[in-house]
Amino acid sequence: MTERGSRSGRGGEWAIVVHGGAGPIGEGRDETLRSGCAEAAARGAAVLESGGSAIDAVCAAVEHLEDVPDFNAGRGSVLNRAGEIEVDAGLMTSDLAIGAVAAVPWLLHPIRLARLVLEDGRHVLLAGEGALAFARRYGIEPEPRERMVTPRAEARHAARLARVPTGSESSEPGDTVGACALDLRGGLAAATSTGGTPGKRPGRVGDSPLAGAGFWVDARHGAASATGTGEAIIRVLASRQAIALLEVGHPVGTAAQGAVDAIGRPGRGEGGIIVLDRSGGIGLASSSQAMPWASIVGGRGASGVLRRDSL
Ligand code: ASP
């Protein structure tokens, strides 16, 4: 199996890896997205370093990226066909606890709500108005439009309505966020959060809140978070697939690349994945034009933008 478009590393006792979405990221945005990921990884690392849990670490990382308007998660999410924001997010820990929310309108921190679903424990996934009703029990309300919609998201939507070609990035996925962490007690967690694909139908749910597709954790092997064409990622359960490859003994970089190869199989699908194995090894792979990422393993940080043609 080729290692093209993938990287892997091995490290210490705690670890965090973050992605900022696979897709065409557009001119001049590399540094903004890379540094956003680096800061998110640092927030997660601060939790892990002080003995905090993997779930706290992935939530700290993802919540940061939901706040940064340059990412397609929380503030900065893409607009759907109706010009609205509907967000998806999900997370999982190594004891098979899962929480997810889908197609929830105008939420700034969907990962926070997904965590409340996990902690409540009665259900795994809440969607739409029902998810909002659940949010309100915790005092979480939809945000006003002006707090959530960025000029970039507005411009992409306007271009789509006017059917003006603004380059390949106008309707493709990208800028979704995700994180995987390993804590000092050996606990693992993965989380993914997105506004979905630009111009999606209202009510469309992608892979990000679906366990096995947008994220997966196995206590014995590792954690994964995927990004890219949601429909393809769902069809091949890309995150579950990456962990299955670890399970049969593949190295973490090969597991990441294998999952990305699978995303391409249904046709028209592309994307990326981050994989963290239980000894702190990190695998990154992407078949999309670019995927910003950052990692900190046992105190050593790295970050960059993985390019399809960079290796
Ligand atoms: N996977 C996300 C979705 O299809 C989009 C992305 O990763 O950018 O909703």
Describe the 3D structure.
The protein is α+β, with helices and mostly antiparallel strands and 311 residues long. It has one domain: Glutamine Phosphoribosylpyrophosphate, subunit 1, domain 1, CATH 3.60.20. The strands form 2 sheets. Strands 5-4-3-7-6-2-12-13 form an 8-stranded mixed sheet. Helix 7 crosses helix 9. Bound molecules: aspartic acid. Aspartic acid (ASP) binds next to strand 9 and helix 7.
Kindly list the characteristics that best describe this protein.
13 strands, binds aspartic acid, 5-stranded antiparallel beta sheet, 9 helices, disordered N terminus, 32% helix
Bound molecules: aspartic acid
Q: Reading side by side through the largest sheet, how are the strands ordered? A: 5-4-3-7-6-2-12-13
- Structure annotation, total helices: 9
Largest sheet: 8 strands, mixed
* Order of helix and strand elements from N to C terminus: EEHHEEHEHHHEEEEHHHEEEE
How would you state the average pLDDT, rounded?
92
What does the overall shape look like? Answer: globular
The tally of strands reads: 13
Task: Report the sheet-strand fraction.
Answer: 25-35%
Query: What Rg do the Cα atoms give?
Result: 17 Å
CATH architecture: 4-Layer Sandwich
Distance between the termini: 14 Å
Unreliable residue runs:
1-12
According to CATH, what is the topology?
Glutamine Phosphoribosylpyrophosphate, subunit 1, domain 1
**CATH class categorisation:** Alpha Beta
Helix content: 25-40%
